[in-house]
């Protein structure tokens, strides 16, 4: 679920402007999973544009506090959401921790890095939601440390049904600054893509693992 429509449209436009999101229905990208995709999203690029990263920071901080109440800790999911998570924590004047994909194999064997006390309220910050699996592994790691997860806030989600099901099953409320639906609406309105390309992009979302550009 998006925080609000205005933020969703503005975020989508900014991501398109800096090529954090690229749309190409004629020459699709190949994801690590092997899926062919007409969209590629790399929100790490946000950090290289001060005005845009400040906008993302401020929208996160304002909407996180409005939606979840002020938590005790902000947690970022490694590696893509570490930088953004730190910015949000700084804006809210809160401690920050980050979660590795898996526990370290040496030293203290940490998966959660930083100071976290049992029972603290945590909002998790993520850069991108696809299936939600890696994001929810981070939630599991935090819960194993005794954290009370208030919810997750992400920059962007593709809005796959499998992600919605995964978050519902894990009992985690997810809110995003923007999503695939609002991205396509904005992309057509600003003539990044045609209405024909929009239809093709909508077909992809329905069955991304089976999508083919020739369909």
UniProtKB/TrEMBL annotation:
Residue ranges constituting the Phosphoribosyltransferase domain according to the UniProt record: 59-157
Pfam families per UniProt: Pribosyltran
Keywords recorded for this protein, A-Z: Glycosyltransferase, Magnesium, Membrane, Pyrimidine biosynthesis, Transferase, Transmembrane, Transmembrane helix
EC id: 2.4.2.10
SUPFAM superfamilies: PRTase-like
Residues engaged in binding 5-phospho-alpha-D-ribose 1-diphosphate: 100, 104, 106, 126-134
Classification via InterPro entries: OPRT (IPR023031), Or_phspho_trans_dom (IPR004467), PRTase-like (IPR029057), PRTase_dom (IPR000836)
Reaction it catalyzes: orotidine 5'-phosphate + diphosphate = orotate + 5-phospho-alpha-D-ribose 1-diphosphate
Binding residues for orotate: 130
Transmembrane portions of the chain: 73-99
Recorded metabolic or biological pathway in which this protein acts: Pyrimidine metabolism; UMP biosynthesis via de novo pathway; UMP from orotate: step 1/2
GO molecular function: magnesium ion binding; orotate phosphoribosyltransferase activity
GO biological process, one term: 'de novo' UMP biosynthetic process
The protein's required cofactors: Mg(2+)
Family in the record: Belongs to the purine/pyrimidine phosphoribosyltransferase family. PyrE subfamily.
Protein function: Catalyzes the transfer of a ribosyl phosphate group from 5-phosphoribose 1-diphosphate to orotate, leading to the formation of orotidine monophosphate (OMP).
PANTHER family with a match to the protein in the record: OROTATE PHOSPHORIBOSYLTRANSFERASE, URIDINE 5'-MONOPHOSPHATE SYNTHASE
HAMAP family listed in its UniProt record: PyrE
Assembly description: Homodimer.
NCBIfam families on file: pyrE (TIGR00336)
Protein name: Orotate phosphoribosyltransferase
């Amino acid at each position: 679920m998006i925080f609000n429509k205005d933020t969703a449209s503005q975020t989508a436009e900014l991501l398109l402007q800096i090529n954090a999101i690229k749309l190409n229905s004629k020459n699709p990208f190949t994801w690590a999973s092997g899926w062919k995709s007409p969209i590629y999203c790399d929100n790490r690029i946000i950090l290289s544009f001060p005005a845009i990263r400040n906008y993302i920071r401020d929208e996160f901080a304002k909407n996180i506090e409005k939606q979840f109440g002020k938590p005790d800790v902000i947690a970022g999911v490694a590696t893509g959401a570490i930088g953004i998570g730190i910015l949000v924590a700084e804006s809210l004047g809160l401690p920050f921790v980050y979660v590795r994909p898996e526990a370290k194999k040496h030293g203290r064997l940490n998966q959660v890095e930083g100071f976290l006390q049992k029972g603290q309220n945590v909002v998790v910050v993520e850069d991108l939601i696809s299936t939600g699996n890696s994001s929810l592994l981070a939630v599991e790691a935090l819960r194993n440390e005794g954290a009370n997860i208030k919810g997750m806030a992400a920059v962007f989600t593709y809005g796959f049904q499998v992600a919605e099901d995964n978050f519902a099953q894990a009992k985690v409320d997810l809110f995003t600054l923007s999503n695939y639906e609002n991205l396509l609406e904005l992309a057509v309105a600003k003539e990044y893509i045609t209405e024909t390309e929009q239809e093709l992009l909508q077909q992809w979302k329905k069955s991304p693992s089976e999508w083919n550009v020739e369909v």
